[in-house]
# Entry
Amino acid sequence: MKRVSILSLIAAFVMTMFASFASAAAPDFQKLGFPNVAVEKEIVPGQAASITYGSVRIDVPADAFTAPVKFQVIEGANADFQAKAPANETVLMNFAFKVTDKATNELVAKFNKPVMFFYTDAKITANSKYYDTTVDGQMVVNKVPAKIEGTTLSHPIAGAGVGWAVTSPAAPVKNATSPVAGISAAPWVAGGSVMIIGAAAVWFAARRRTA
# Structure
């Protein structure tokens, strides 16, 4: 009996640890920099769905979930992510998922099949980047490069363990390397040359009169 009790305690401990790990693997990004719900939709197993808002489309395959879920796309302020992005990149958009199992009210961390994310923007270029944003607020370039076709960036997403941000190279500032004084130097040089030539002509004429 004592042995059975010990085994039961161990099993209970393992299950508790597993539950804690599962909970930790599904962070609530609404409390981690993405407070605003951009769009939400109920997803039913066995039916493909498409979620669209603004310049974003998310395609959900029919077998992504085994139970009905509330699928929310949440956003934060671009300025918050810009502060963490490289100095030569501009954050175009940010987002995260909050997917809730409607039967258990638990957050879903991993999907059975990846969903596809599409973002279209005139500022998307071949040098645009797709970042993961971690629970501690860091931005890390995703190990799988995004697919870029024209002005559309796309990427598969297999779960809701991180958030994301899309960047493009910062637009260069015109005449950023030209000294301000150099812009108007030519008129001053030309005017100075005229004054020197004029002074020389007066001096030469004065010498002829006194000769």
